[in-house]
Amino acid sequence: MSEHVRFSGGRAGRANLAWGQRSIYEAMRQAGPASAHYFNLWRVLPMPRGRGPYTVEQVTSAVVALVARHDSLRSRIALREDGHPFQIVSETGWLERQVLAATEQEAEKAAEGLVLDLAARAFDLVEEWPVRIGLITVDDVVRQVGVVLCHTAVDGYAADIVVRDLRQLLLRGSLARPPSQQVLDLVAEQESGVGRNRSERALAHWEAGYRKGPPTMFPDLVAEPGSPRWSKAMLESRALEDAVTIVAARHHMSTATVLLTAVSALIGTITPHETCVITPIVHNRFRPETRDLVTSLSQLGLFTMSSDPDATLAVTLEATLPEAMRAYRHAQYDQLAWEAMVERVSADRAVKVDPSCCFNDMRPVDHSALQESSPGEDAIRTSVTSSRIEWLPGVDHFTCNFCFFVTRQSGILSIGLNADTCRLPQSRMVGLLRAVEELVVESAFRDARPSELEVAP
């Protein structure tokens, strides 16, 4: 049974949505109420060792302190008379809490089930504050905490900060250092001359890419819709994790950039375009001010790559690294100005420009760090046989035709794809995931070309 928990503390204020907030707000609005829950973020935190046992009220008090610490967790959205959204940060309010008793053996599984249940409903952006919590108890002692967060308040990076801070509050009772920045301060910075200049440089990069690339990456309906139409497949692969670490170390780049380039190269083998246009979701935590900022700061970057089936992945990585860096650098911009740019370029080209092809690295840790050693070729090839495909719940309506994502499951690297099956049938989805794995594994030990890989029709 759900109950409401009151919170108080922190400052109050009103401001426009930050650029990243406006971006995700618009995506949620386009997805509609039936699919908006797809954007919810959730985390599960086992009770930290070193203190405890923790009662329900002790954990709830830590959550209340957490909400007081971060403006974004006390923010709701309202609409002006002209229909534009803004945010109201409150000093007091309420959070939804559910408490579920379980046995010691069932606690971990019960926590995952409870948090998924809490995440299965869209947030009421006007009436509800953006945090829900679920507590799993064993003999009245809290064993697991599930936290569900609205995407307009946090992105994946910020969700990890929330869990980190909650853990520290449970261990220490307080946090001495304040956040590096708050959302109200961020909005003020973005609306200043510094913010406007940053946005203008980014939009110039976007406009150049939108004028030369294909208007959309998957324009043709090639199959009857699957059920649901937007299906979601995930490949869990220890072999890929080992191989991508080797390739990233060799080329002095992040594993995310390796995977972004690999999937872009493979898209080039299954689409007729000379240029692949893909939009990586960039966390935008490159400055000290944003290190501990809890908000939805992530925005899309624009990565373009010329298709060359004769180039090996090694050659492609060296050639496209500067373009990847430009994509990351220019992922902060005024969302309204971006929308105006898209309309202008679309009008000039007499076609709607929307690549509808994105890349999202969702891993919660610093995955750019390289391992001290990696298994040899035989070990990696053997582990390829243990990789597996899993189908996750999809939706019947979504805003993007092709969403490639990277995450971790049970400590193992996983890559996934959420795609419109009318444009990329399920067999091709599986074929593409397998092809990414094979391309990177082969490239870890010898030159490999995307054209040598077979993507199932």
Automatic annotation (TrEMBL):
Gene3D superfamilies linked to this entry: Chloramphenicol acetyltransferase-like domain, Nonribosomal peptide synthetase, condensation domain
Boundaries of every Condensation domain copy: 54-334
Matching InterPro entries: CAT-like_dom_sf, Condensation_dom
SUPFAM superfamilies named in the record: CoA-dependent acyltransferases (SSF52777)
GO terms for MF: 2,3-dihydroxybenzoate-serine ligase activity; phosphopantetheine binding
GO biological process: amino acid activation for nonribosomal peptide biosynthetic process; enterobactin biosynthetic process; lipid biosynthetic process
GO CC aspect terms: cytosol; enterobactin synthetase complex
Protein's name according to its UniProt entry: Condensation domain-containing protein
Organism whose genome encodes this protein: Acrocarpospora pleiomorpha
